[in-house]
Amino acid sequence: MRILVANLGSTSFKFRLYDLGAPGEPLLARGAVERIGSTEARVKITWPGGERELTTAIVDHGVAMQICLDTLSEPGVGVLRSASEVAAIGFKAVHSKDHHHVHRVDESLLASMEAFSSVAPAHNPPYIQAMRTLAKRFPSLPLVAAFETDFHQTIPEATGRYAIPDAWTAMGVRKWGFHGASHRFISWRMPELLGRTDLKLISCHLGGSSSVCAIRNGQSIATSMGMSPQTGLPHNNRVGEFDVFALPVILKETGLTLEQALNTLANHSGLEGVGGAGRDLRDIEQAAEAGNARAQLAIDLFVQSIRHYVGAFLFELDGADAIVFTAGIGENSSTIRSAVLRNLEWFGISLDTEKNQATRGGETVISTPSSRVPVWVVPTNEEIVVARQTRDLLFSAGS
Fold first, then answer.
1. Is-above-0.90 flag for pTM?
2. To which CATH superfamily is domain 195-382 assigned?
């Protein structure tokens, strides 16, 4: 079964195409389209033994998808005999008021996503628009939304609820949690690496957007993100933890409207807002090394927040069988990993400095042999999670 997994932005389209019916579930192709809506959209598609790049006019995501499928179906490419071999498109959807598992995309689901667009302003609007466009252009192709909140449905009520009136909770105001595909992948991969399933794991998904998750026996029991993707750890340009009662002070002192203040919190805060050296951690680390105090403060704030949640989840899990670093920063920044795990020998956590410094991705243990809690770096694969969830939904529906 060929499943295409789509990652959408307002003017971008990225995809991976998997063959889930073949041994090893191989990645058949991947691609990216940028500047959708312009006459100079850029397309790059790669497959085993080949690559295609072009610049052309692309009016919407439907045309972008068509170009990718047409390219992969060309006789000389050989990835697909025809576009009809694609069984479904799976989306790593973020948030919805009433849908929090894996669902076929229809108007009811899109309306539910629209209801929470203000909670996920960077994600929901472009996904909704693109899903509608693709549904019109490919009416016979199943579209499946695998929501990031799905993995966290096992979080106990006392952990996932805010201390607010029942009526507000009934509106969907609760700690939903995100990065579900990434944390789910870690929950799948670590039992394979450690040879047992009864594991207590702390998964640190650190990237442009970051979260920490406590996993017991393959299930999420706590996570750092709350109602929206703006919460928890500081993100590259999103605020993270923030007291809502600070908003009236900000509005009064600045004269900003609520919408303007929320825009700043969602788009110009986090590491960018504190450090003043951009939103990419590599640039922030470079600035800090050059003596930029604000950049160093951004790093310190980020590290402190990660340590806060790792410590809390060690208590929540009654210890851990592994701490796992994943995603762009988690896999590649030895500086952040070292700072997060500093001075924890008293807790039985001991980092191997040389291994940590040498590790840039790849599945690797970076703790010492004597460390009571092993520390791993494991590259995540959110797309294969969405592909499998899409396949399973089609099978369960008898498709």
1. yes
2. ATPase, nucleotide binding domain (3.30.420.40)
